[in-house]
Amino acid sequence: MQFHHHGYVSTDPRVLPAAGVGLDRPEELPDEVDVLIVGSGPAGIVAAAQLAQFPNVVTRVVERRDSRLVLGQADGIQARSVETFQAFGFARQIIDEAYQITETNFWTPDPENPQHIVRSSVTDDDPAGISEFPHLIVNQARVIDYFAEYARRAPARGDVDYGYEFEGLEVGSGDYPVAVTLREVTGQSGAGINAEAAADAARGATRVVHAKYVIGADGASSRVRRSIGGSLSGSTSMHAWGVMDVLAVTDFPDIRKKCIIHSEAGSILHIPREGNHLCRIYVDLGEVAEGDDRKVRDTPLEEIIARANAILSPYTIDVRDVPWHSVYEVGHRLTDRFDDAETSPDGKGRVFLMGDACHTHSAKAGQGMNVSMQDGWNLGWKLGYVLEGRSPESLLATYSEERRVTAKNLIDFDREWSTLMAKKPEEFDSPSQLEEFYVQTAEFPAGFMTEYTDSMLTGTLEHQALAAGFPIGKRFKSVMTTRVADAVPVHLGHHHRADGRYRVYAFADRSGEQLARWADWLLENPASPITRFTPADADLDAIFDVKAVLQQPHREVRIEEQSKLFLPASGPLGMTDYEKIYAANAGEDIFDLRDVSRDGAVVVVRPDQYVAAVLPLDAPEALAEFLSKAFLDRR
User: Fold this and answer.
1) Helix 513-524 with 620-627: angle, nearest 10 deg
2) 303 in helix, strand or coil?
3) Are 479 and 593 spatial neighbours (Cβ–Cβ below 8 Å)?
4) What mean pLDDT comes out for the span 48-66?
5) Does residue 80 contact residue 475 with C-beta atoms inside 8 Å?
6) What is the mean predicted confidence (pLDDT) over 408-427?
7) N or C, fewer C-beta in 10 Å, the chain?
8) pLDDT at 74 > cutoff 90
9) Which CA distances in Å does 40 have to 64, 84, 363, 515?
10) Distances 273 to 58, 255, 298, 299 between C-alpha atoms, Å
11) At residue 613, does pLDDT exceed 90?
């Protein structure tokens, strides 16, 4: 954590100095905004948190509830999301309060007594070491709280405007072409299937807010989606599940472990929750009769509990309290559009959809909240870049291009997973089929199979061999290094904060001579991306956070001989930033672990942690050429 570069700080250093719109943010919702976000769920709040780092962008979030979410549906937090939490500054805190999944236990019918279940196998949750971060379970409401707090501490001082319901929108022309009609409401609570209206709920007056861009993060029944002519299409399986959060007493020995249970009486996905006592239990309710017309959703709680006891036999579960429960049929749906480019007057996207507004699937793979958060981060920084003049408006088209593929892959995976979960024991090809699928596909649900392809943001594979362990288009996988200035061991990727900057990692050649020439070019050449794309009055690293990774042990590095590119002046006092120079560690050498060329390489990483390009160290002009596709000249 860095602070004091704007002067001495004795208060919470996570509260950044207010700037731009954050200096005098109005309490009331303005009539004109740059970005209006409808919905403060995981997708919307992440977009808002990222945009709060752009202090010249007026962003507002409207939410129909009276206040913060109390009871969230989602609870599974994959490792990729915890990496994201690290970038937003709260990974450590949320890990402390969450339940950590370290292994999964599989239970199947006892061969000697098929009416009873026995533990048949145990698998590590991350046997391949996909990430240094854990797989967590924590209430969605707490995740939203942390992102909202991050936005309030950011320079733009972002926050949520409660008590507004989206009514409709029209896209026209002018500086603020999207006219959004909102209605003031009171007495609303919950979200999604938990949404409720109090007996004294009221609907007040309407008002129109004009926006440059609108984000529809308003759930599966999205009104924003309908307002741009979009729809969700797909299928619903004829299989129902009950889900309940319970406080229970039981003799089932694995009550505090994740379990996948198949018995003669049906299936259970059992997920322990945070706080040591709470559990979430997904209970197989079987096939739904044709013509049921959603009557299965009226299944009483008592029947779900009875079915759970039948599946768990010979064990029993005595449910003492149920904070929440629901019944659903598994559905897989994808929107036909992620933006309104098809219908907008100028053919440019002005209204964007994210989260459940554009993709829905079963809850059992724990993907909904995780994918939605990546939707929000993906679009958030891109809107910030366009509105601050860093990038052309064409950048926004990459949101739909990238996230549509991700959503489609998610639905395909979840369809296969939910089908396996609904099978009866005798229907499996082998007793270990489900376990094998779980282990073999672990990287996908953990959030690490997203791979963006060649575009204005993602380079070609021409130089991939220079850093084969940082696949272009995939997230930057961190490795331990040593920060040279203070000899502190740190994960290199953990310094990638969600501040809207690109990261450029310059992996040095053996002697460091080529690194020095590369750095000189970036500092002195008029064609340098730092010269072209950084405003003249901004810090040297305001747009590009350039870091050097050296091959020799940290004690052999003479920091005073390193380029000023890696020791830039920071803040109004011109304080030197000493957190740009790193050295490989003996025994876990980043060059070896990520197959980085000993002749050097340059790895470019986007603001949302995805590798954008791998380039040669001896061709600095290649970096300028690549970045010119996505950046506008600022001088």
Assistant:
1) 40
2) helix
3) yes
4) 97
5) yes
6) 82
7) N
8) no
9) 9, 18, 20, 45
10) 37, 10, 25, 24
11) yes
- E-strand ranges in 275-394 read 278-287, 317-335, 351-353, 359-360
CB 75 within 8 Å of CB 253: no
Q: Which long-range contacts (CB under 8 A, 24 or more apart) does 415-419 make?
A: 415/332, 415/361, 417/362, 417/364, 417/365, 417/441, 417/445, 418/237, 418/330, 418/361, 418/362, 418/364, 418/365, 419/237
- Contact call for residues 238 and 286 (beta carbons, < 8 A): no
Q: What percent of the chain has pLDDT over 90?
A: 78
Q: What are phi and psi of 288, to 5 degrees?
A: -100, 130
**Nearest CA-CA partner of 156 in 59, 232, 47, 301:** 59
What's the token pair of residue 231?
A: 């729809």
Q: How many CA atoms lie within 13 A of 494 on its CB side?
A: 20
- Average pLDDT over the chain reads 93
Strands 160-162 and 164-171: unpaired
Q: What angle do CA 575, 390, 25 make, to 5 degrees?
A: 75
Q: Which of 396, 433, 393, 390 is CA-nearest to residue 544?
A: 390
pTM over 0.85? The answer is yes
| Most distant pair of Cα atoms in the chain: their distance | 78
Q: If we measure between CA atoms, which residue out of 136, 373, 141, 146 comes closest to residue 273? A: 136
For the beta sheet containing 581-583, the strands, ordered from the edge strand earlier in sequence to the opposite edge, are 488-491, 480-483, 581-583, 544-550, 502-507, 601-605, 611-615
**Type of residue at 152:** R
pLDDT for residue 192? 67
Residue 128 has phi, psi (to 5 degrees) of -95, 0
Distances in whole angstroms, Cα of residue 467 to Cα of each of 346, 461, 506? 41, 11, 11
Rg (CA), the chain: 26
Give kind and range of the element (H or E) at residue 259.
Answer: strand 258-263
Band of residue 108 on the pLDDT scale cut at 50, 70, 90? very high
In angstroms, rounded to a whole number, what is the distance separating the alpha carbons of residues 424 and 431?
A: 11
Distance CA 42, CA 259 (A): 26
